[in-house]
Specification:
This protein has helices at residues 9-15, 34-39, 111-131, 136-151, 182-191, 197-204, 213-218, 224-231, 265-330, 337-365, 370-373, 375-390, 407-428, 454-457, 481-492, 543-546; strands at 19-23, 29-32, 76-80, 88-96, 103-109, 155-161, 168-174, 208-210, 238-245, 248-256, 393-398, 432-440, 443-450, 496-502, 505-513, 517-519, 535-537. The chain starts with 8 loop residues before the first helix and ends with a helix. The strands form four sheets. A five-stranded antiparallel β-sheet has the order 2-1-5-4-3. Residues 60-73, 457-479, 517-521 and 529-549 have low confidence and may be disordered. The chain contains 16 helices and 17 strands. Helix 13 (407-428) links the parallel strand 11 (393-398) and strand 12. Helix 3 (111-131) packs parallel to helix 9, helix 4 (136-151) packs antiparallel against helix 9 (265-330) and helix 12 (375-390) runs parallel beside helix 13 (407-428).
């Protein structure tokens, strides 16, 4: 074998910015230019001559994972683990020489570039996880997995503070097996005198880096309760990053680095970005829990008012009638049949009213499923229940195509109408109500109009003219929980709600656009050149808002 398999090799190799290598039939290095030797972690070419290369000679090796985005999409990927130093990723091209004894390889180091791409993908995937409807635990598990996959870490844990801000809970993990006793053992280590770096992170509100942390823990008897568990992981250094939301710590993200991994500024920046994503998930879950608790509290208050205003008073009346019957019976004389019949009629009527009120409350709490019955049947049941309970005359007018309304939208429209009817019963002192509901021009429209006193005469300020976006500033209902909920339900679907009120009554009108069907490119029939793609449904981008984005 000649010293130089390529004519003019020395002239080209000296100035080439990329790595150049010549391989023999066994894939071993025969020649390397200075740039290639440096990429492989060697000081001189001679250090690698005769050693196996990471490059494949035959076709069919894996292509670059970012090939669709790269100009050099035909490049292949090779992984190089030097005798000392970090693992490298090379993008390369190989070409056999005419005599087939040697292969020439041109390669470049893509470790940092692909690492950045994986980190960007991890942040994007984490944002998707935050927009999903999963639990907080599953979301934080997804964040931990993305970090491990992007940076090749040994493991990640995410712990969050409870509502008191005093206790940590393990909510997300990747790389380490789930162990219910972990926190108990961790507290035991603390009681034995072990230093918990995560507590320093929470107190100082900044990342803490501890090189060779596993060697310190292994040599410290205070950590003995966790030696076996942490020893299952092949790790060395440790980083703890705070989860900050609204200027306060919500928890910590603990990262366990594999032996040989470096902790640089880019690594800390990536961990901080992922910690921010995790903090957003915790903050969102906290706000959602508060909103649910507020909704439950408001609903309990409404039920208490309804019980007091109607059922409690009616039951009290039944008790008074029973006491009156008892007084007459205590006199010892015969009771007139007419008096007994009057008592029985009044008690029976009050009992029926109480039963109707209770059924109405149950109906409002658990309405007929819009998915099962449809919007029209659900609203009809609500109207009948209200008429039986209150004696209010309700005229219900339906349009067409209500069966085309999606179940989630039907549920929200039902709740809007239920709240509007509830307001009429409680405040308007109306005798008749007209409800219109239908679909026209691909829009779901509903209106509730009563002949009651109007908002001003029922205790609120006079209704102002309609504002932009269908909002009605200046009404007494603007600050009410019920009206706010009605408007939020309409706006959730891109709709509007308008209120008009005067001496002749109040009208509420809700308009919600329905999802549209648009054509999507479909393969045409090769035997029919004139064929056109069929129309298919396209989900609105507002779906992301319903899933919590």
């Amino acid at each position: 074998m000649s010293a130089s398999p390529l004519v003019g090799w020395d002239d080209v190799a000296a100035v080439a910015p990329d790595g150049l290598a010549v391989l023999d039939r066994e894939g071993q290095f025969v020649r390397l230019n200075p740039a290639g030797a440096a990429m492989c972690g060697a000081r001189e070419e001679s250090d690698l001559l005769g050693t196996p290369s990471p490059f494949a000679l035959a076709e069919g090796d894996c292509t670059c994972p970012t090939g669709l985005l790269e100009e050099r999409s035909q490049e292949r990927v090779a992984h190089w683990v030097p005798a000392s130093g970090a693992r490298r990723e090379f993008a390369y091209r190989a070409r056999a020489l005419p005599d087939s004894r040697y292969t020439v390889v041109s390669f470049r180091d893509m470790t940092a570039a692909w690492h950045r791409q994986r980190r960007i993908a991890a942040i994007a995937q984490t944002s998707i996880a935050l927009a999903s409807e999963g639990s907080l635990g599953s979301t934080l598990d997804a964040v931990a997995r993305q970090i491990v996959q992007a940076d090749g870490l040994a493991g990640v844990q995410i712990l969050i503070l409870d509502s008191t801000g005093r206790e940590l809970r393990l909510m997300g993990s990747a790389g380490l097996r789930h162990w219910d006793a972990f926190l108990d053992r961790l507290l035991e280590c603390r009681d034995r005198g072990a230093q918990l770096c995560m507590l320093d992170t929470l107190r100082e509100r900044k990342p803490i880096v501890v090189p060779h942390r596993w060697a310190q823990i292994r040599a410290d008897a205070a950590w003995e309760p966790l030696h076996a568990y942490l020893g299952e992981l092949n790790w060395d250094s440790f980083v703890s990053v705070p989860l900050m939301a609204r200027g306060r710590p919500e928890g910590v993200l603990n990262a366990y680095f594999a032996p040989g991994q470096e902790i640089g500024g880019g690594t800390l920046e990536f961990l901080a970005a992922m910690a921010e994503q995790a903090a957003l998930a915790v903050d969102y879950a906290t706000l959602l829990q508060r909103e649910r608790e507020g909704a439950r509290r408001n609903e309990r208050q409404r039920l208490a008012r309804d019980l007091h205003d109607s059922i409690v008073q009616q039951v009290f009346s039944i008790g008074m009638q029973a006491n009156a019957a008892g007084v007459l019976g205590a006199r010892g004389g015969p009771l007139p049949a007419e008096a007994v019949r009057k008592f029985a009629d009044e008690v029976g009527a009050l009992s029926q009213t109480v039963l109707a009120d209770l059924r109405a409350m149950v109906h409002e709490l658990r309405p007929p499923s819009s998915t099962r019955l449809g919007l029209e049947d659900a609203v009809t049941a609500l109207v009948k229940s209200t008429e039986n309970r209150t004696g209010l005359g309700i005229r219900l007018l339906y349009g067409v195509d209500l069966d085309a309304v999606a179940p989630d939208l039907a549920e929200d429209m039902y709740r809007i109408l239920a709240e509007a009817i509830h307001n009429v019963v409680k405040h308007a002192e109306a005798t008749t109500v007209t409800i219109r509901l239908g679909v026209r021009d691909h829009t779901l429209t509903a209106s509730v109009r009563d002949d009651g006193r109007g908002l001003a005469e029922s205790g609120g300020r006079s209704a102002a003219p309609e504002g932009e976006g269908g909002r009605t500033p200046g009404t007494a209902w603007d600050h009410g929980y019920g009206l706010t909920t009605m408007r939020e339900r309409a706006e959730r679907w891109g709709g509007t709600m308008r209120i008009r009120s005067g001496k002749s009554g109040t009208a509420v009108r809700v308009v919600i656009p329905l999802p549209v069907r648009v054509p999507e490119p479909q393969p045409t029939d090769p035997e029919d050149p004139g064929s056109t793609p069929a129309a298919v449904p396209l989900r609105e981008t507002r779906d992301s808002a319903r899933s919590g984005s």
